[in-house]
């Protein structure tokens, strides 16, 4: 397929590199052009605008920070909407509020005749590089089917989840699991250390039980050593938790665990830890 990538941060870059390795033609654009260097050296066409990406693509993937950024790269000057053509599908891989996703999707269809699907993912850059992402897809079934050749090459599973906004709702629910697990593991490590036990012994026992997780196996040992190489920034998880809390409130739901996680991650951002991996919440909890 001809696949466009708008937003080549850690995830967008990894998705683009994986697609190139699987034989797709990739056109990429990023506000900071230097962030497209690895893609360019691997064969991607680097474009000067999102409009050029749309014009050169069958599917244009947006992978940016928030809903305002999605709107900017879609409807702004030289945005994707300026480069629409018959058959183009826009696939939003950003983590945004489902209400925003529905609004952007409706506007694209009514004003430009373009179908947008939501394709938030679980797994991060390493999973993208290995083709092991889990894709949550919503919106027009025909548009999802049209994008499947690209989606299959970056993922091990694609969940088709119904109308626009559904995938982003589930993505926010999934990110609550990430936040809660990171806090729980961090507190276990800190309690073990303060109690005079070796945190590695805590992790050895944890990982021998039913309560082991991918995080406790793959990231927790680095956490215990104070190493937080970023795959998903702490400040972005704080943004997502806050979004989940707002969504819950707008629907009359109270999520006490999410409120506590939002407070902890908000304090960590204000303490200057926002540029760490989300597991750097341990640094905040330990006061180091």
Describe what you observe in this structure.
By secondary structure, the protein is an alpha/beta fold. The protein contains 14 helices and nine strands. The strands form two sheets. The protein has a six-stranded parallel beta sheet, with helices on both faces. It has a three-stranded mixed beta sheet with strand order 7-8-9. Helix 8 crosses helix 9, helix 8 packs across helix 12 (234-250) and helix 12 (234-250) packs antiparallel against helix 13. The model has no long low-confidence stretch (mean pLDDT 97).
Mean pLDDT: 97
What does the main sheet amount to? 6 strands, parallel
Question: How large a portion of the residues is in β-strands, by DSSP E?
Answer: 5-15%
SS-derived structural category: alpha/beta
Order of helices and strands: EHEHEHEHEHEEHEHEHHHHHHH
Number of strands: 9
Shape: globular
Q: How many helical stretches?
A: 14
End-to-end C-alpha gap: 48 Å
Gyration radius, in Å: 20 Å
Parts with pLDDT < 50 across at least 5 consecutive residues = none
Strand order, sheet with most strands:
3-2-1-4-5-6
Strand and helix layout:
Elements: E1 2-6, H1 10-21, E2 25-29, H2 37-41, E3 45-46, H3 50-55, E4 59-62, H4 67-75, E5 89-92, H5 98-112, E6 115-118, E7 121-122, H6 124-129, E8 133-137, H7 141-154, E9 155-160, H8 166-194, H9 199-206, H10 214-218, H11 220-224, H12 234-250, H13 256-273, H14 281-286
Parallel strand pairs: 1-2, 1-4, 2-3, 4-5, 5-6, 8-9
Antiparallel strand pairs: 7-8
Helix pairs in contact: 8-9, 8-12, 12-13
